[in-house]
Design a protein that fits this description.
303 residues, alpha/beta, 2 domains, 6 strands, elongated, binds zinc ion
């Protein structure tokens, strides 16, 4: 299971999802009804198992689950329904639930509907990004076209450039949900290894995503060509970090992602997809005088 899904399920179990019913308990002015189907209170169990899209998708998924009679308490519903599932099926189910929550937020905050077919397709894609699915054939399918396929999300490309003298350039580009370039960032510094450099670059990008993109309900997808880093971040144990200098940054990234579970997603893509970030990082490494202090441009020029 990918870490964001784990955190999401944990939040749902802890009654931490901000559903209408949950908000109504603290703010009485907020209606507890489900804003989508208006047939009952919007509890976690309702959104994730019983509301229209959840019910239809659970049934038409490869698990063919019937959810209408499940308990109104999320944890009871989850244990009942997962009783006969093996680990793979359980992780599929959890990813499905996470996608219901994202679909619900997209309907409410962006007014866009998701069909069960689209949703099941998303689940398959997400499962293929999980570490076990990270085999070469799947990765090869992600070409330049991947970038244009991210319409509707903020997208960031991040890269680092490193040489044997530890000179390092970090760069990221931030595109808004209409794929317009909004920010570029570039910085010169020293890093102990290419992995260390990539980790620092990603940390900068994650921090930027949190400060600049958080007001929008849109998710930010951060693209990196460092597969090792994506795999390290998805592990629970940090025993095998390729460079120990990077450990503190890895911790910080994980901490930020856990605090903003629906906001940021990090994806591995081949280098050609993030060419623009690659060039900018090279420039920051070579032109150290200009990039000694971080350069964050709201209206950037790339050459
Ligand atoms: Zn509903």
């Amino acid at each position: 299971m990918i870490p964001r899904v784990k955190v999401f399920i944990w939040r749902a179990i802890q009654d931490g999802l901000l559903t209408s019913e949950r908000l109504h308990r603290t703010i009485h002015q907020i209606d507890a009804q489900c804003p989508i189907c208006a047939t009952s209170e919007e509890t976690a169990s309702h959104v994730l198992f019983k509301c229209t899209i959840a019910r239809l998708s659970c049934f038409s998924s490869q698990l063919s689950l019937r959810t209408e009679a499940l308990s109104d308490t999320f944890i009871e519903a989850l244990s009942a329904i997962s009783e006969n599932l093996d680990n793979t099926q359980y992780s599929y189910l959890c990813t499905l639930l996470w996608c219901f929550w994202k679909a619900r937020n997209i309907i409410l905050f962006q007014g866009q509907n998701t069909t069960p077919q689209q949703l099941l397709q998303q689940v398959m894609e997400i499962n293929s990004w999980a570490p076990k699915g990270m085999q070469t054939p799947k990765l090869k399918r992600m070409s330049e076209s991947t970038f244009t396929a991210l319409d509707g999300c903020n997208t960031m490309m991040v890269d680092a450039s490193w040489d044997q003298q530890n000179n390092t350039g970090l760069a990221f580009l931030n595109f808004d949900s209409r794929q317009k370039l909004r920010w570029t960032y570039a910085q010169y510094l020293k890093a102990q290894s290419p992995f260390h450099a990539e980790t620092m670059g990603l940390l900068m990008a994650v921090k930027h995503a949190i400060t600049h993109n958080i007001q929008q309900a849109n998710q930010t997808i951060i693209l990196t060509d460092c597969r090792n880093l994506v795999e390290t971040l998805s592990k629970d144990s940090l025993d095998e970090i390729p460079c120990w200098h990077a450990e503190v940054h890895i911790h910080e990234i994980q901490h930020l992602l856990n605090n903003h579970p629906d906001l940021i997603e990090i994806r591995y893509v081949p280098r050609q997809v993030i060419q623009a970030a690659h060039k900018l990082a090279n420039r920051a490494r070579v032109d150290r005088d200009r990039f000694q202090a971080p350069v964050l441009n709201p209206f950037p020029t790339l050459d």
